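ingest -> validate -> predict -> emit
validate: passed (alphabet ok, no gaps, 503 aa)
predict: started
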Amino acid sequence: MSAEPGRFFCTAGRGLEPFLAREVRARLGATEVDCVTGKVFFRAAAGPGELRKLRSGERLFLLLKKHSPLPVSRNKGKMLHEIKSLVIEEPEYWLDIISVWRKLSGHEGKTDDVSQKNTLALKRKSEEETNTASKRQKTEQVRAVVSKECQVEAGERCVAPERLRGQEYWIESKTSSEFPSKGSGENPTANEKLSFSFRVSCRCSGAIAKILTSQEIGRAIGVALVKQCGWRADLRDPDIEIFVHLNDIHSVVGIPLFRLPLANREYIRTAGLRSTVAWAMASLAEISAGALVLDPMCGLGTILLEAAKEWPEACYWGADISDSQLEGADGNIRTAGLMDKIELLKASVKALPLPSESFDCVISDIPFGKKFKITNDALFLPDILQEMERVLRVGGTVVLLLSQDLCKRMDGLTKCAGSDSPEATADGDSEAAPAKSPSVDGNSSSLACGVGESFLSSRHFGSLVPDGVYAVSLGKMDAFIYKYRKVSAAGKWELSGTVLKGT
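emit:
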């Protein structure tokens, strides 16, 4: 029995939106796919098992509302009224939404008997039935409703109200999944009356953020939901989380389907490169059944793990010079149960003990950043590229993750196509096609960065010609995924001054 089509949106790291858009179409048969910075909206008839398989997204939400930006006014009261009208609906509406959400989330983390209590709590909601004691209780509970969601790579930070000497102040708290479960000190009578608990996570940016804070918006929505539906606010372990994102592009309301982000891989014991970026890199490599895939600087093996999980019919090899990195990679491979799919060897990327033209794909994250000290030796990058070219078969692909600094270093070591060089393309043309990068709407567009298009469109490495460049975010820094294709047998490389030549 197929699932009913539902409306969803999934958050994505900056630059990964085109990958996610393609993935939801291919994996879920999604329609009405719409990309904006940081999010992909779509409609799909998919169950929780299929939705969990998404690999390039961060958090997945059931979409409740998607509207144009709210009109900005200097009147805070008017603004809050507009925002509350966006979220607040009759209890029957929420009953339907919660029913769909429970089916999709699989009652994750909650027992089935809670559902009946929640339904009764919604249906017996009373407009006039409050006495002084219950009003006081609700007011105290509402003070705990707001959490300012700040998504940073692996998770979120929540902001929780606390009491100190009778005055309210705000503290940053741990990720919601790390909070302890509901304590036994709560009033059981209150729990019975307000058995359905919730939390509001609010993010606002742009013009609206200059008028209202996320705390003010979340508090107003929380108070309204308590009054309208009789729910109980619970920041620590809510039955449901309501996500509200307001900016200059849209106004979005949704409910997270799963407690943990999709990017949290249960099969990765020790995290290295962000799993979503590793998957995106592997998706560009055109891995086919029976292919031999190499990561010559595998580190903890994240790229190999993501590739082997998605394309299990290929064979994978990882090399690294560091014993500790290989030990970590071996632990990850064992945790993932991929010992029969991935082979590891200790070797320098500049001198791989592997036959020439033996691999179909080479995928690697070239180390950079504070953790890795990049040498100024002009031979460092050429030797790496020469070895990758040597072990790659003609027609094979190379996918590299490079920092902007490494791009500039490589720029000085490359040579322009067409000037006493081997042919730049397979059909004999002396000019390589300009490198393109998909924009967030999935269309091809030139990379705006100064490094990137001009760098790739006019330069190649020996027999490796550019086949695409993609700017992605790694949190505190930007990086670039470069794709190359080998169009002819590798020649000998030599350095002439600062110019790298293939002969």
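The chain has a mean pLDDT of 75.
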